[in-house]
Amino acid sequence: MAKKEVAVGIDIGGTNTVFGFVDRDGNILGEDSLKTTHYDEVEVFVAALYEKIMVTGHKIGNGIEIIGFGIGAPMGNINKGTIEHAAGLPWKGIVPLAELFNRHTSHPVIVTNDANAAAVGEMIYGGAKDMRNFVVITLGTGLGSGFVIDGKLVYGHDGFAGEIGHTAIRPGDSNRDCGCGRKGCLETYVSATGLKRTLLKIMADSMQPSELRKFSFDELDAEKIHDAAKRGDYIAKRAFTHTGRMLGFKLADVVAHTNPEAIFLFGGLALAKDLIFEPAKEYMEENLLSIYKGKVKLLPSELSTQNAAVLGASSLVWSNRPS
Amino acid sequence: MAKKEVAVGIDIGGTNTVFGFVDRDGNILGEDSLKTTHYDEVEVFVAALYEKIMVTGHKIGNGIEIIGFGIGAPMGNINKGTIEHAAGLPWKGIVPLAELFNRHTSHPVIVTNDANAAAVGEMIYGGAKDMRNFVVITLGTGLGSGFVIDGKLVYGHDGFAGEIGHTAIRPGDSNRDCGCGRKGCLETYVSATGLKRTLLKIMADSMQPSELRKFSFDELDAEKIHDAAKRGDYIAKRAFTHTGRMLGFKLADVVAHTNPEAIFLFGGLALAKDLIFEPAKEYMEENLLSIYKGKVKLLPSELSTQNAAVLGASSLVWSNRPS
Lengths: 323, 323
Fold this sequence. Notes:
Chain A contains 8 helices and 13 strands. By secondary structure, chain A is an alpha/beta fold. Chain A has 2 domains: about 5-115 and about 305-320, 2-Layer Sandwich (Nucleotidyltransferase, domain 5); about 135-300, ATPase, nucleotide binding domain (Nucleotidyltransferase, domain 5, 2-Layer Sandwich). A 5-stranded mixed sheet of chain A has the order 3-2-1-4-8, sandwiched between helices. In chain A, a hairpin with a 4-residue loop joins strand 5 and strand 6 (about 80-85). In chain A, helix 4 (about 190-205) crosses helix 6. The longest helix of chain A is centred in the C-terminal third of the chain and has 25 residues, at about 235-260. The first copy, chain A, is globular.
């Protein structure tokens, strides 16, 4: 009997690295993880990871055949198979990840960032199966984006396309420091942290009561703000509205640049549904040229948040397969 | 002897329609024009245009073979071969231009907007011959843009990709009316008209003398401001600096979205060279994430301004040819 083809999806995060064996339909047949932080040497990390993947594969049994490895990692460069200057990882400089992996395997190894992996995942397993032109925005601690044009992920000349999280909201006059060293990037407004920062500003300006006034900045998180907003908390709702509007404002730019069929929102903030989708949609439409108005869908991702990183990473393998 | 293959490039403007016979190297073998404004009926316009093209072809002689027609027009839609709601043309609504043309010829007829045509022209005949990922910005009365990704013009889902002229400089608080009906679009700052508007604002705020204070708004144009700036006029120079900065600010978004190898500036304002390139480059770099800094070239178009529209339109034919 023919063996079942599987792609190994690997998500390298600052704390944990998670991997899974995924079939063409997006079923995860086996998964495991290891602590990224335990490995100061990337060669040792890759060896340990590969070993653990083989052990998991062995447990699944000999009915499967690995066809490749897809890796999502911060600052993953798809052109070069490298991770470059990723602030949140233990390894500094330019890490030749695909090359290190290929010391253990001759299968294809594809590296990209999490948001690009999410975009390909949406196309292979999710809501963009029949789409040729779409964008995925990932809303987590930061804001990532992946562009698909004419059925292909956009890499760009240097392999770093899709960083709308680091476009500025306005010229010059923002006070919000960004982790990237500049000021006023979209990510400082539209992300779990951005939502919290906006909440604090509204709380400072407004006299309205709020159940969130009893929490410190450190204690606050997107979930608490979401819960408060669902209970009707005025300040929490306004923080979501402002966050959605800033997102919608820059999504209008995305539309004017590449005219996608749909924009998918993925991740924690997207789970707040109407609280974020409504102001985002409204403000995007308001900022669109008439030829685009009413045409671009703003949709929730159809990848489950729980497995999305592994699914997205594994999808790179299917999408890069010669057809 | 084999006939020389030529593409017919047609540029439909609000006042004149210009066409030319162009060979693969970008040589124009013959050209002519007719008044767009003379034709209330688009069918009559197309018939007259086709007739005039045939006459010109006849004059060139029988050593040539037409392989197709490329048309640049405002609001030209490449997916559908239509012109849609172009404010500056005599024909309202959706005009099925390619279809009308194909009543006269069985050769391919490709329609797109001027900026997209300029982008393909840069790739076929100009400075982007060896590039796979670049963007062309056309600076005239308005601001247009064309994106090339992976060697192909980006059409978008609805055929209208590349309208960065109508992305907003900041959320909500701009006073500048745009021809598109909204406010604060990039085009209201970065275009011949935008330069003039900026000049007036600086003139209003500043007490500095300027040779331009003697001209009315109607009398002023980009050329007068350029000449004054070259002579060291403080206010004219500041108007250019502000215009370049606003351009650079939004070019940083272009880089963060699609990570091109180069951005080409084309048209009247681009002829002001350092006056516009220096502040644009400086402000673009200032607004770039570190992974992009110093990597993206900002270059003048290599198409001659005089023939660019016809060259760009003709290039569509070569680029759409099965290879």
